[in-house]
Structure formats: structure tokens, C-alpha cells
User: Fold this.
Amino acid sequence: MILRKLQKTLLIAGISAVLLIFIQNNCRAQDSPGRDFVLTVDGHYGYIISHRGSIVHMIRGHIGGGELTYLFRTCGKQPWQALHRYPEFGVSAMHLYMGNPSVIGNLDALYPFVNLRMNSMNRKFKLYLRLGVGLAYLSKPYNRLTNHKNNAIGSYINAFVNIRLGSSYMLSPSWRLDAGVGLTHASNGATKTPNLGLNMATLNVGLGYVFGNKKMEMKNDSILPKITNRWHPSIIGAFGFKEMEHPLGNKYMAYAISANLYYSASHKNKFGTGVEFVYSNGTRKRLESDSVPSNKIKDVLKIGAKFGYSFNIDRLSIPIDFGMYFYQNSDLSEKFFHRVGLRYMVTKHLIANLSLYTHWAKADYFEFGIGYEL
Assistant:
């Protein structure tokens, strides 16, 4: 029970801290963030994607809902803002009716996001890519006694990811029309099974009102600092919790150490490689269940090589790793591993890490960690 409360607390604190610290940092970059902002209200309509045949029975109809968004615009006061074509930052609260109230219930989410402009500068029309990560509350998770048909999600609190191709058109200096198409994912990273997750595709249309500065002047005379050091070696230590395949099972600790070497191709993009050391008590339990010896560390340890990419927005980065194990117990079936997450440079050298460790599309566990970059 204590371990379950701890892992939920860490999940909430980790996701919220990394993104909200970044948003707070960028709020200070505005001339008057308290008076210059946009409020939007959007309606959503779509469906649950049947990514596994085993969840087809849960899908009973289309989904729909609403979203309230607070966002602020950057004006180029910092050099990286002009580099990314003056992105927007904000926080959204979303409510979705999932089409099957007795099995899935409703989904409520709160998530910070960034809107990255994809078209050339145009005061009236903006095409953007939204990247958002936050928390979702599912009102009807799996329960072996009262809701055994929900085999997709086993927890009330879940991680929430929203990727959206959106657009906005200024109807007037005060009013804007928003529309887009997005993909949304909710799951708990195997902290509590079942954890097949829910994937949703929705269309959204809404209206926004601009408070404060109606005609924000864009500054494009800021000069980006020259990249003097393109090579960035780092080491990151992380840990997580995972539950085995059977619901209501025990929680098992997992640990990872990543040795990385990234090359800065530009202020936006880094490419890298590294070595991964992974040790999981869940793996030990699995081997014991199959009567495979696992008394020594080398029986459970997995070592892999990886290639990585990192998209950078000032101090925040979104790393994506693709790797393959070259050392592991011969009775383990996983050959490839993957990672996607968030990293924030707290100082010049200290890294805060929150990521999802997976084997292909199967989530293994959430990682919480810190690192050091030379």
C-alpha cells in the first residue's frame, strides 16, 4: 500500500514539476504575462482507436467533450523564441465522455503544452503542432469485482499525452477561431495492471479571446549564442515501479543507468548514442516463475546500446531512444527497447529526467531520475 501511494505521488510530482517549472520559467520571459493571455474553449468529437483486438468490446460509440485552455504567446524577448517561430505555452483542462459510461466512464485531464508554429510568420493564420503531457483521471478503471470488463486501464490516475495538428485564425484583434485534429493517449506505464492504455483520435473546434496586448510586436533582433561545445557527454540514473501482468499483483522496483553522448547539430536538434544498464526485480520474479536461475546480478542485468534524438526548446528537451540489448539472460524475449520522455536542465550541469521505458508498444515503467552533463 505504501509503495502504491509512493509511485502515484512520484508520477504526479514528476510530470507536473518538469513541465510547470518550464512554463513558469517562460512566463518570466514575457513583458506582462499576468495581463496578456488567451482563453479558448473547444469542443471535441472522435473515437477510441482499437489498437488491440482485446479492447474492441469496450468501444460502444463515439466520444466527445470540451476543453478550456489558458495560453500565452512569446514575442521573441529571448533568442530561442524567435528560433522556434514564437511558440505558445499554456495549460488545458479537458473532459471527455468515452462512449461507454458503465465500463470506461469519463476522462478528465489537466496538462501543460507547447504550440510549435509550423507555417511561416502570418499574423492572421497559424498552423501549429501541440505537444502536451500531463495527468488524467479515469472514473471507471478495472476492478476485478465491479468492472472486470475494463481490461485497458487499471488505475484512476494516469499519464496523459496529447499531440495535435492545430490551427488558429484571427477573426479580429480580440477573437480567434481554433480547429485541429489530435491523438490522445492515457495509461499508467504499468504501475498498475491492466495497462493496455486508451488511444483516442478527435477533431476540435473552438473560439478564443485575447486579453491584454491585442497586437503583440514580434522581436527578431535577438542573437542566438554561438554553439561552442557541440559534444555533450552525460550520465543519468533512474528508477521506477512496475506491476506484473496479473492485476492487483506486487510492485517491483526497476533501475537504469544511461551513459550518453549527444552531438548538437543545431540549437533545436541533438543526435546521440549511449549504453544502457537495466536491472529489474520484476525480471527476477519472471525468471523465478519460469524456474530459471536468477541468484546473481548478471542473471537479471540487461545491457544495451542505443541511438537517440533530442528535440530542444531552451532548457527543455524531448529525448527519443531506440536500442537493442547485447547482453541479457538467454531466457528473456525482449531484444529492443525504447524511451520517450522529458528532460529539463535545472542548472548548467544538473538534469531532471521523466521518461517512459518501453519494449516496442508495450510500456514497461515510468522512470524518475537525475543526471549530470559535462
Notes: The first strand starts at residue 37 and ends at 49. The first helix runs from residue 2 to 27.
